[in-house]
Amino acid sequence: xxxxxRFETGLPGSSIxxxxxxxxxxxxxxxxxxxxxxxxxxxxxxxxTKRAATEELVLLAPxxxxxxxxxxxxxxxxxxxxxxxxxxxxxxxxxxxxxxFTSSPFTIVGFSAGAQFAHRYAMCFPARVAALxxxxxxxxxxxxxxxxxxxGCAASDDLPAGVHDLNGFLEIPVRVMVGENDTGRDAxxxxxxxxxxxxxxxxxxxxxxxxxxxxxxxSTRGVVSKVSLEVLPxxxxxxxxxxxxxxxxxxxxSFLNRERTSPIxxxxxxxxxxxxxxxxxxGPRAGADSGKRGGDCQSGRFL
Length: 303
Prior knowledge:
Largest sheet: 9 strands, mixed
Distance between the termini: 50 Å
CATH class: Alpha Beta
Mean pLDDT: 87
CATH architecture: 3-Layer(aba) Sandwich
Strand order of the largest sheet: 1-2-4-3-5-6-7-8-9
Structural class: alpha/beta
Number of strands: 9
CATH superfamily: Alpha/Beta hydrolase fold, catalytic domain
CATH topology: Rossmann fold
Number of domains: 1
Radius of gyration: 18 Å
Strand content: 15-25%
């Protein structure tokens, strides 16, 4: 039986708790990092335990304490910018030392606020991420060097150096997932005129526009796009529904198991009933169906 066991590491004031699924595989094939949502529940990590064990993956799930890491979604902690990201690095290195596995590069999955953290972490530490699943994020960091982080990639108080290796991030296989009914504007959704105009009115619109923006940016930079979108049927903004109805765990593991250079097969979309926008197949320009929303990595249309 797979059980989550809690560990803690780091210095006072910047410590991090993390769960590891035990028993560990005898010969791990890699590390899977699972990031919780705003409520900091272990539900998502627990849902992945069985499949991670079957796939011989070490499962690690950081726990971002609300006091120290209130703004973990934008990688910030009480000690400053990137504190939450640094805490994950510390947790991975600590687990690697204890259990004797290679911690980097790893695959990462996040839901809602966890998807916000996961994609921003991958943007800032692309060399540490082998593949990314971002499910139902409320809003995104756009590949735009004219906007300051976390809205875009330019330097800010939250990221003094800015996103310095955007090409490295664009080369990571990324699967964006969102429920087909995730079209509401609940209390946790980030709302502002600039975000609504740039990214969309709800999570479904924002997911589609972010995928299109990454695809457009990759094309502009001469990088082969590796981002794709899955719209999960019968799902709103609920981790429980995404797991039970949308097959979040199965679909995430299937995607993460692929070789980084493997194409997305049309047969997968046909058999799953999901809407999938494959890498290298550009949809309408971001914002084409929503006035001023969207844009590419240098357009400045996210203001």
